[in-house]
């Protein structure tokens, strides 16, 4: 079966609002065993909505729609659907009671716009919305199911989890979908594909391998589809084991996790502490770490030493090394890591110093030159990288590589 998602709203098309609904819906549908074949976004115009309804009805079994169901005049989805399904709006006392119940704490008098939320197409199945004023509308139309939901994420998520997905599971018999992700670092996508060329010839047709690249890392995702879930899991595990002789230490994790999550588990499980000293990454490493709940267990803090005076006065970097070698150099970045570890009293510290760009580079040190250091209980190691000339990418890749170097040191220390 094929499921398509349709999101409605000019705010999505002009970039004012990021469409997080589709990503969340796709994830939850996949977990339930369904496959999303297409995601569509259209503007708040009658023609565009009618066109996408016509298109999806010809190729999808289920069309899940979010947006355009508010109380204001620019929300036209409900009226447009009446045209498409050749029906009219009728007043639902049940929906009106829900609206009044939800608004009674905030709105003393129900106005006509609020009352209009209780108007629903006559030929739809109304699914009541306990967390919002707009009801969910389910249509069975010429072999295709259309479900129109509010665009508010909390309302959409509630109805998807408690109503829509359970109803779809009752209606359709689906097979199993099994995913397994392997996190690979520091190998370009084209190089990795060449390394795995012979390996991919051994993958059976019912299992697909996808490359999902991001700065500094690639997720290899195996997806198996079939009726025998246990068989799929067994075959995928067999394939995953076959990657180790090919990729080796460039495998960072055997799960769909971020590099930060790998570090969090490593440090938490082993009761280790961490600090960072950042120049070119500007606090991004600290941001990545603290974006995860519970990071205070192992992360003490960070010094964003953007100016050389901060490197000297706070981290203890020697003035002569700054003058002789410059801020982007091995002795400076190593002293930054050692200084952060000392002043924060941690087991480990990471540091970065580089030229993120787009300007500031020289012939000797072009844009994208980055030194990264890791200091641990026994030693300090550092490495020079050349990442490129795109500032945002350089910051991300520097942060990712700092995490990888940190993991490698801790792994060796724990052996």
From TrEMBL:
Domain MoaB/Mog: 4-171
Protein name per its UniProtKB record: CinA-like protein
Gene3D superfamilies: CinA-like (3.90.950.20), MoaB/Mog-like domain (3.40.980.10)
Family named by the database record: Belongs to the CinA family.
Organism: Plebeiibacterium sediminum
Pfam families according to UniProt: CinA, CinA_KH, MoCF_biosynth
SUPFAM superfamilies: CinA-like (SSF142433), Molybdenum cofactor biosynthesis proteins (SSF53218)
CDD domains: cinA
Stored HAMAP family: CinA_B (MF_00226_B)
């Amino acid at each position: 079966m094929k499921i398509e998602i349709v999101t409605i709203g000019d705010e999505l098309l002009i970039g004012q609002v990021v469409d997080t609904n589709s990503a969340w819906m796709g994830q939850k549908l996949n977990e339930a065993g369904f496959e999303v074949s297409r995601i569509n976004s259209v503007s708040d115009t009658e023609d565009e909505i009618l066109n996408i309804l016509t298109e999806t009805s010809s190729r999808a079994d289920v069309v899940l729609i979010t947006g355009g169901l508010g109380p204001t005049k620019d929300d036209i989805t409900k009226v447009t659907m009446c045209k498409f399904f050749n029906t009219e709006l009728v007043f639902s006392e049940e929906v009106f009671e829900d609206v009044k119940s939800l608004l009674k704490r905030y709105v003393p008098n129900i106005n006509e716009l609020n009352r209009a939320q209780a108007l629903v197409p006559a030929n739809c199945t109304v699914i009541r919305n306990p967390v919002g004023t707009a009801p969910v509308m389910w249509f069975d139309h010429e072999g295709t199911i259309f479900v129109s939901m509010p665009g508010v994420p909390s309302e959409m998520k509630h109805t998807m989890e408690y109503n829509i997905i359970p109803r779809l599971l009752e209606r359709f018999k689906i097979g199993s979908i099994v995913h397994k992700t392997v996190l690979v670092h520091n190998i370009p996508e084209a190089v990795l594909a060449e390394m795995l060329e012979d390996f991919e010839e051994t993958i059976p047709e019912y299992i697909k391998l996808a490359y999902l690249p991001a700065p500094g890392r690639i997720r290899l995702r195996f997806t198996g589809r079939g009726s025998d879930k246990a068989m799929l899991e067994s075959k995928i595990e067999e394939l995953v084991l076959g990657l180790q002789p090919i990729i080796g230490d460039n495998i960072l994790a055997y799960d769909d996790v971020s590099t930060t999550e790998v570090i969090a588990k490593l440090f938490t499980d082993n009761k280790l502490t961490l600090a960072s000293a950042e120049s070119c990454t500007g606090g991004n490493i600290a941001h990545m770490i603290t974006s995860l709940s519970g990071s205070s267990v192992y992360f003490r803090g960070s010094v964003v030493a953007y100016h050389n005076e901060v490197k000297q006065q706070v981290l203890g970097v020697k003035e002569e090394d700054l003058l002789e070698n410059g801020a982007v150099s091995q002795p400076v970045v190593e002293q930054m890591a050692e200084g952060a570890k000392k002043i924060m009293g941690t087991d480990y510290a990471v540091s970065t110093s580089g030229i993120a760009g787009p300007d500031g580079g020289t012939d000797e040190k072009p844009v994208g030159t980055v030194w990264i250091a890791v200091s641990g209980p026994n030693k300090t190691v550092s490495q020079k990288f050349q990442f490129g000339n795109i500032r945002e990418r350089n910051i991300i890749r520097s942060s990712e590589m700092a995490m990888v170097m940190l993991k490698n040191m801790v792994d060796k220390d724990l052996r």
